[in-house]
Description:
Order of helices and strands: EEHEEHEHHEHEEEHHHEEHEH
Number of strands: 12
Shape: globular
Helix content: 25-40%
Number of helices: 10
Oligomer: single chain
Distance between the termini: 29 Å
Structural class: alpha/beta
Strand content: 5-15%
Amino acid sequence: MSGLTRRAVGRGLAALATCSAWPGAFPAQAPGIAAPAAADDFRGGRRSGFVLGGVERDAGLLDAMASLGANTARVFFPFRRCQGCDTFGRAAADLASLRTLLARAAARGVGVVVVGSFQGVETPAFWSNAALRSSVVENWEWFAATFGDYPAIAGLDLMNEPNPPWPSADIAEAQAAWHPLAEQVIAAIRQRRPVIPIVFEPVAGGNVLGLHGLRRFADPHIVYSPHFYTPHDITHQYVNPAWQRRIPYPAGAEFGLGAWAPRLGVTRIDALRLEQELEVARTFELRQDVPIYVGEFSCVRWAPDGSATRWVQDALSLFERYGWSWTYHEFRGWPGWDAEIDSVDPAASNRSRDAPTMALLRRAMQRRPA
């Protein structure tokens, strides 16, 4: 999730006791398995599905996703920090879960975007620690060598919602911290896998504004992946204390929303405003000729009077018009984002594939280009 509501992924620090295969040793490739396709698989809106969550989730959920029409699952793999040292590693239980999940995904024809979840990257201390940053590079090289030829892998997402500090209020300051690290990781992965799609999320927690002023990487197999939750005042209402107003979608200018973008200002929040908010990403895509994949988007289901469904409809319409791939956040995880629950009651739990928001998602996946 974006911003203050970021969900912790993984099974906690206790699993560090089982960490193994720390960076340094690279196992041989699995024999006889074709390499995944390149980043062009994400062009034209050819990938759509759901965020599944952590690798520990039941692999059987992939069956349910596939039955709804998904061909893509976004899954978090936790690189756990070694106790007492400035190094990330991998827990044996997480590796076993990932192998199970990838086998299930391959059997159902679902591509998996594996997201690097590095403990502590949301803190300024990570970004000032050269050893930890080097460990990110080493772990991704290990991962590419170990899992890069599994046929179910659709892409490697370098870091979830990177958000280096930028006290100057100039987003270039955050980009100067993240982009060089991303380039090192890309180079390390390429030593092991020349064409596997690499998913790059911009700074500011994956916000589309993180693409402002960005030039595409030299590597031709990069997928650029913003997240979209604009405005949080609507999509995250009552999720945490930061957003404690009941606001419908569309919302009139009387709600005072939009000041975060001085060029646009306080306006009505509707499909036109969402289009304007996505303009940075659309311009970047067209100028740089790159694939765009919206790794996360959603609106909390208790937004009033069907607002969540209307917001998702407008977002999907824009993604479809632009030919962007997407994964909805999230599939049968935290109930607030569950598109199968048709209720504004936070305690509701009854699911239906015909719930209004899920019906929208199913129809969009049915329209997906082959």
